[in-house]
Amino acid sequence: MGEVLTIGSAAAPAAPRRRSGVRWLSYAFFAMALLFAAVAAALGDVFFFRLATESLIFGGLALSVDLLLGRTGLLPLGQALFFGFGAYVSALTLKHLAPSLPLALAVVLLSGTVVGLVGGLIAIRAKGVYFALISFGLAQVVSKIVFNTRELGASDGLIGVPAPVVSLGVASLDTAHAPSFFLLVLAGMAVLLALLMRLMDTPFGRQLDAVRTNEQRLAFLGFDPWRYKLAAFVLAADIAALSGALYPMLRGFVSPELMFFQVSGNAVINVIVGGTGTFVGALYGSALLTVLKSVVGSFTAHHAIVIGALFVVSVIFFPKGLVGYLAPALERLWSRR
């Protein structure tokens, strides 16, 4: 019992200091994003806006991975399942129901919750590497079904997805306009990050940390770890699905490749490189790897080798990730003043 109480009491004095560093790095991320938007708008380059928007969208997928890996202690190797599912549901809604952003997000949220619940009931029963393998297997099965379903475009995917126009009362926002859509996605990620950070300060968030630290002791205190893991799994599925719902609005198409293991693997790399358990580290990692792929990809098609090497170096020499090292450094700097 003393070990579980340590999670909530003895660790409490250090938590505000760590959160302050992470919080300021969060502010810095969005400040740099707005500065980037101003520079890109001045240059009039649509390519950089679309690349940055894609980075934010995959950053949302990485946030869902960090919720499971960094805060609940579950390694999801098939999180692309929910990302691709959200992309397909969004594309079908925009094409066959109405080109409405709120409608697409609402349909994705409802259906993503159901799929996440079903997937969670299957995967949460396993622990450790078995959970990782089951999540990987679920994504493989669904991706193959989509890949061979002609009604979903089979291997070609769905093309010609219309870009919705968002009504803002006196004005409207066309998601086909790259700068506007970038700012919209940036605002969405800011809200999502703020909600996740706030959630971790609630009793539910502290129970997730307890699940990661000592699941058996949590059960001895009368809490059901299985329920908390299932809730975290469904919440992560919703975040991934909502992030995936934005993809067809950016690219105008979806393909089964969005459910492949490479997408899930990249999301895990984003989290580890950025800083596991920090949330904003997932966004930093996604931005870093997106830029790296773009730069290295302009010289060679084998950019995956560079990304793999970066991942290995990060795991060996910088296991806490970018934010995991920068946040304590900022706090030590502030403490000297």
Summarize the structure.
The chain is mostly helical and about 325 residues long.
What does it look like?
The protein is an all-alpha fold. It is built from 14 helices and 4 strands. The chain has a two-stranded antiparallel ribbon. Strands 2-3 form a two-stranded antiparallel sheet. Helix 3 packs across helix 12. The radius of gyration is 20 Å and the shape is globular. The model is unreliable at 1-18 (pLDDT under 50).
Tell me the layout of helices and strands:
Elements: H1 2-10, H2 14-43, H3 46-69, H4 80-96, H5 101-123, H6 129-147, E1 158-159, E2 165-167, E3 172-174, H7 178-199, H8 203-220, H9 225-245, H10 247-251, E4 253-254, H11 261-274, H12 280-297, H13 303-317, H14 321-335
Antiparallel strand pairs: 1-4, 2-3
Q: Counting H and I runs of at least 4 residues, what is the number of helices?
A: 14
Question: What order do the helices and strands follow?
Answer: HHHHHHEEEHHHHEHHHH
The chain-level structural class is mainly alpha
Stretches where pLDDT is under 50 for at least 5 consecutive residues are 1-18
Instruction: Give the spatial strand order of the biggest sheet.
Output: 1-4
Question: What's the mean pLDDT score?
Answer: 88
How far apart the termini lie comes to: 38 Å
Oligomer: single chain
Tell me roughly what share of residues is in helical segments: over 70%
Strand residue content: under 5%
Beta strands, count: 4
Radius of gyration: 20 Å
